[in-house]
Amino acid sequence: MTQFPLKATLTDAAIEALPPVLDGRACVRDARLSQLTLMVGPRSKTFYLHATLHRRTHRVRLGPWPIVTADDARDQCLATLRRLYKGEPVKLVKPTTAPTL
Prior knowledge:
alpha+beta; 5-stranded mixed sheet; single chain; 2 helices; Double Stranded RNA Binding Domain
């Protein structure tokens, strides 16, 4: 079984070096922004915002890697966190996906 770090600085090079998970999913939190998480599965790596605010858990899908880069995901996470702290509703926008054949 592959050991995954619980916390790491999420960069594109570090994400590329992560192996796929064979069974289930692994969650890696960003060391710089703890609300930014990367879920690693057997076939995909996806960014999420996972924050608890006012005793409510907010989980927002930011998009799949490499369509959404680590820097873009960090920027989206910060913008969404600002809206949550202001009390504004978070509009879930369907993230871009990889083209299919």
